[in-house]
């Protein structure tokens, strides 16, 4: 039965429907033909886990009681963080290891790849711990000639880091020791990475009571660091480069590791030893129970002594002297002093065995020079002179009798030395000059102005003096080797260089100590040997090694000429003409600048007009305008001559700077003397202009010597910051600038008064 149409249209909320609901229910209930069928349920759906899902999900805004999803999300985030941390750590660690090892390999294969020994000098006789030996010697000819690169032995001038003729470090040391040696080289050459300095007071161990200057290391100003260093020096403390301290630590660790590997080191020094080695200690046929030292051990000890010497504290200097002496006494049995005589009168060919003996003798002389230098820095002048005398006596150069201060000084100089404590116009090389000689001696300053004069009576009695007098009998007398200066041209080049360098150190020390007459004799002797050797080697200048050797001799001749000019100026009388002194200084200027020109690819100097200047004695020719690169002849990546040539170029530039500075001081002295005479003022102004130009040129060479660049005259006259205190050259740069500013201010006042 169908429902009425009216009821179908009525809504469930209609009042009519509510009133008629009872009859309708009655009709539906009693109608037997109507059967209610419920709607069919939708098919059930199941989740992936087999749990049926509700076909009618809960409303989206109804809270769900799901505790697993947040926890899983949290663990997922934490897992990703841990994964990123692990990946980042591994990546950073890997990159760091690659960077560190890459730096070590760069140092090993590039920076240290230069041969540091001749291939037949890699070991001592009967040494079993080195890779090279007599077998290598058999592969070479029996004689050497000046046309051979090995004849000049520049490889022996390079610092050996145990790699010998192959360069680098020795594979016999193992992983740890080799990395320690490379780290020492990095700290010594590139620094430790910080700009602070260690300040070491007197006493203590290596550096005394060390306190690190840590404030303002990052981004600190160069002037602040310079002022700190000056304040430390005025307070009586030693400023130590922390890079040298770390290098010393690494080398000490490398030595300890090498001993574990069985490397044979020289014996410790005996407390009962004589001050100087006896004559019998250098005989090859003398039986010795001690095993032959390893060349590796000797190289490591020399590097250790050098870094201790650079640290410069009293304790470090004493340790450096001991290490040098251990090395010298260990290599002495493998030299033959008498073989030096074999070279006298030699022409073109040198027996290889004699050449090896000469190279080893040159090494002994270098070590004797080092020991003397370190003792002089300590203040033990008597021992220093004894070692220098011992070294010179091995090649037949006799030691002049040591003068007393009262009897052996020339007229006029005794008063200067006795009046050294009186304040003068400025300090000089040999002490302060008296007021009575201001017109002469006060106008000279030395290349070693910072060194305090040490004028001592040689006749004082002490235990060290008695020991030295007793040991002087151990110094061999008589010329066992070279009997004439002209014969030095036939001596092998490494021995020539060692002897000239030793004479330079000895004469410098004598001049500083006030023994001017003896110093002049040694300077003359060094000049004669250098010039005789230079004339002998002119025919082989086309060979790079020979050309570098000649340049080395010429530079040392320039330096000795400079020192001799200063000594002669200090020894001169008041009426002595100073033209000879100016001529000697001019010769030193020219020789130094010629060496610079030969070592570089460009001209040695250029005037303001940018034209190439010819070398002359005229200071007006201008200042050097650029830092000239080293010639490609020496600047190869694995060139044996690269490091010696680089150092020689810097030495020549510094020699030129100091020579021009001394020239300016003499012109300034002449200008002051003209002001006290009836001569016209134009003459004094002319001398002052020459002095100012000389100081200007000295500033230019000084800046270029330490990597600076001068683009014009104004760059070297702008003031102190331009000259170079930021480069660590506060002493010399400030000295040159002060001299220049003093003369320039007088010239400006003279112009204003016109």
Q: Your description of this structure?
A:
The protein is mostly helical and 754 residues long. 51% of the residues lie in helices and 3% in strands. It contains 22 helices and 9 strands. The chain has helices at 5-9, 15-19, 21-30, 68-111, 134-137, 174-190, 222-234, 242-260, 295-311, 314-331, 352-378, 381-393, 413-418, 463-471, 493-513, 516-536, 544-571, 579-599, 642-675, 681-705, 720-723, 730-753, and strands at 45-46, 52-53, 143-144, 198-200, 210-212, 238-240, 350-351, 427-428, 431-432. Strands 5-4-6 form a 3-stranded antiparallel sheet. α15 (493-513) runs antiparallel to α16 (516-536) and α18 runs antiparallel to α19 (642-675). The longest helix has 44 residues, at 68-111. Residues 33-63 are annotated as: Disordered.
Comma- or semicolon-separated keywords:
about 750 residues; mainly alpha; two-stranded antiparallel ribbon; 22 helices; about 5% strand; extended
- Ends distance: 143 Å
Estimate the global geometry from the Cα principal axes.
Answer: extended
- Structural class assignment: mainly alpha
- Our Rg estimate from Cα atoms comes to 41 Å
* Number of DSSP helical runs: 22
Mean of all residue-level pLDDT scores: 72
Spatial strand sequence of the major β-sheet? 5-4-6
Largest sheet: 3 strands, antiparallel
